[in-house]
Design goal:
Elements lengths: L2 H21 L1 H9 L6 E2 L2 E7 L4 E3 L22 H12 L1 E9 L6 E11 L2 E9 L4 H8 L7
Antiparallel strand pairs: 1-2, 2-3, 2-6, 4-5, 5-6
Helix pairs in contact: 1-2
Length: 148
C-alpha cells in the first residue's frame, strides 16, 4: 500500500506547514514555486491550491498558476480536484487517488495525493505507483469520494 511513500509526502506537506507558521503565506508560496527549493524532494514536491481550486503555486507547472483547475478530470473521468477541495473543506486532510500521466510521457499511472487545508489553502504532495492491489482497489470503492 506504499506506506513509506505516503509518509514521505505527508511529511513534506507538514514541513511546508511549519514554514507557513514561521514565515507566512507569501514566502511559503514563493518557496513552493521554486523547483530547487525545500519542497521538491526527488519525485515528490508540494503544490498549493485555494479553496476554489485555483492553483497558487507549483514548482514545475508555472503556466497553470492562477488558473482554476476545479474542472480538471483524470483519464477515467474523475473530478479529482473538485473531490480534493471538497474533502479538504470537510475533513481538513487526507489522501485522494486518480490516474495521471507521468511527466514527459503519455503513460498513465495511479497517483496518490496527500492534502491538508491550512490558512485558506490546500497544500498537496503525491507519488505515482504502477497499480493498486486488487484488495486496495475494492477497499477504495467503498470510501467516500473514492475512485469507483
Amino acid at each position: 500500500m506504499d506506506t513509506r511513500k505516503r509518509l514521505d509526502v505527508k511529511h513534506l506537506v507538514e514541513e511546508t506547514i511549519a514554514l507557513l507558521d514561521r514565515a507566512g503565506k507569501k514566502e511559503t508560496l514563493e518557496r513552493i514555486a521554486d523547483p530547487e527549493g525545500p519542497f521538491t524532494d526527488g519525485e515528490h514536491y508540494v503544490f498549493a491550491l485555494d479553496l476554489d481550486g485555483n492553483l497558487l503555486a507549483h514548482p514545475f507547472s508555472k503556466q497553470l498558476v492562477g488558473h482554476n483547475l476545479a474542472d480538471l478530470r483524470d483519464s477515467e473521468g474523475r473530478d479529482f480536484i473538485k473531490n480534493l477541495v471538497a474533502r479538504a473543506k470537510s475533513r481538513g486532510s487526507g489522501f485522494v487517488d486518480y490516474k495521471w500521466p507521468v511527466p514527459d510521457s503519455k503513460k498513465e499511472f495511479h497517483k496518490t495525493l496527500f492534502f491538508e487545508r491550512v490558512d485558506g489553502m490546500v497544500l498537496c504532495s503525491g507519488f505515482y505507483s504502477s497499480e493498486w492491489s486488487p484488495m486496495e482497489a475494492i477497499y477504495r470503492c467503498f470510501l467516500p469520494f473514492g475512485p469507483c
